[in-house]
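S.,

Sequence below, as promised.
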Amino acid sequence: MTGDARLSVCMCCSEGEPQVLDYQTQQYKLFPLLASTYAYWLSGLKMRATYFLLNYEIQQGNTDLLPEVNVLVMWSRAVSDVHFIFASAQ
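The prediction came back faster than expected:
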């Protein structure tokens, strides 16, 4: 069906074109990715705050947090990489 024919069919309908989120299979694919996106965004905000705290601590001569922050950053990078690989395979 061409685009014009499809548009004319949809304009005749009183309900309109169904939305992507009306399909349960699309919800199963989209919602986990959306949730993980928000989780990564929130963890990024926390990491940013930790970065500024670490910079302040280093300026004061305290480097006690450095190994912990390094592990946290490496762990989050590994988790996000694995998640991206699995999400792009779907």
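Residues 21-89 form one domain.

Coffee later?
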